[in-house]
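User: I'm new to structure prediction. If I give you an amino acid sequence, what do you actually give back? Let's try with this one:
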Amino acid sequence: MDTIKRWKQERRLFVLWISGLAIIFYLALPLSLTVIPHTMNKSALFGLSWAWVYAFLQVLMTWLIGWIYWIKAKQLDLLVERMRQEEAE
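Assistant: Good question. You get back a string of structure tokens that encode the predicted 3D arrangement of the chain. For your 89 residues, that looks like this:
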């Protein structure tokens, strides 16, 4: 029973952490465009404005979050498999 509680707690903590990170990261673009529009419209890299650079970073962040979730899901699946093996014994 202890492993079930551990699994639930670990899953809940991970989902809250990754969701909070994603919400903050994705809401920062529209907020920065309204709060500091002059800075976001300045040229940054290759003639693109900071807003475009940040938008491209959001694509990379989406891939990163997916990759982190995939790794964590594999770890949690191993924990569930261990719980099933302990239950079968």
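You can read the tokens as a compact description of the fold. Here is one thing that stands out. The first strand starts at residue 43 and ends at 45.
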